[in-house]
Specification:
Shape: globular
Structural class: alpha/beta
Distance between the termini: 18 Å
Strand order of the largest sheet: 3-4-5-6-7-8-11-14
Order of helices and strands: EEEHEHEHEHEHEEEHEEEHEEH
């Protein structure tokens, strides 16, 4: 299965694609800074690039946590990134009503892991005809994603990517099972590995999620060695001061080193 996004193709056999950007939309300036640098790097390496950021983080640990600028302002920023940088963009939705307005701005709609079994949400997203990136829930087996794909395809949308982002390993911990990548590839859909959410420690800080960003790079290399369509990776100019996922986003300055390494692995695997 091949999915056309912008001027490149995402499939498990084609060159690796990057989905990347700051976790939450904090400002247009930060979005453009991150997007511009990731575009520079991916252009040099010949990697297809999709900018990612969220207008609303609706599943934060605390009611006091920063969620984002909201739908209207968030779509304005995403549209600005899309037009100014000339890159496809991706964002996630949390309610069925958001599907249509979001589809008018973005190139890929993402279904969050916690919501991957929400039938109405997936069906409405699929109805837009926009390609989907559906994250596998931390609670769900890789085999269970077959039903998720069927929900989307029931509305005629074949352009579905499946994203691995770790599985619950006891409380406040995740483990990345690389077997899941192979299992989800059996659906015939492009498979993406989320390197930064896979190293989260959910709720480990009490009122927020912690994590270990130092493991994102080795996990990205391991997943790429399986032979996948894309890598999902969040980056920030100053991760420690990020308003969301401060423990897991990689420093923007480290992105080039990471992408050069996974590019080399991807070429070896697919050649």
């Amino acid at each position: 299965m091949k999915i056309d996004i912008g001027d490149f193709t995402a499939s498990n056999d084609d060159p690796l694609v990057l989905i990347g950007g700051p976790c939450a939309l904090e400002s247009e300036e930060i979005a453009l800074e991150v997007g511009r640098e990731l575009k520079r790097i991916t252009n040099e390496l010949g990697i297809g690039y999709v900018f990612k950021s969220s207008f609303d983080k609706a599943n934060r640990s605390s009611v006091e946590s920063y969620r984002g600028p909201g739908l209207e302002k968030g779509l304005e920023i995403l549209d600005s990134v899309r037009s100014e940088l000339d890159v496809p963009v991706l964002t996630d939705i949390h309610t069925s009503e958001q599907a249509q307005p979001v589809s008018e701005v973005v190139d890929v709609i993402q279904i969050p892991a916690f919501l991957c079994r929400q039938t109405d949400l997936i069906v409405e997203a699929a109805r837009t005809g926009v390609p989907l990136n559906i994250k596998k829930g931390q609670f769900l087996s890789a085999e269970g994603m077959t039903n998720v794909v069927e929900k989307a395809k029931s509305k005629g949308n074949e352009d579905v990517m499946l994203c691995e982002r770790g599985a619950m390993f006891g409380y406040n911990n995740l483990v990345a099972d690389m077997r899941n990548l192979e299992v989800m590839k059996q659906t015939g859909q492009p498979v993406v590995f989320d390197a930064t959410h896979s190293v989260q420690r959910p709720g480990s800080r009490g009122d927020s999620t912690g994590g270990n960003r130092e493991f994102a790079f080795p996990l990205a290399r391991a997943a790429t060695a399986v032979g996948i369509a894309g890598l999902f990776m969040e980056a920030h100019p100053e991760p420690e001061s990020a308003k969301s996922d401060s423990a897991t986003q990689i420093p923007l300055e480290d992105a080039e080193k990471t992408l050069r390494a996974v590019k080399a692995i991807d070429e070896q695997v697919k050649n």
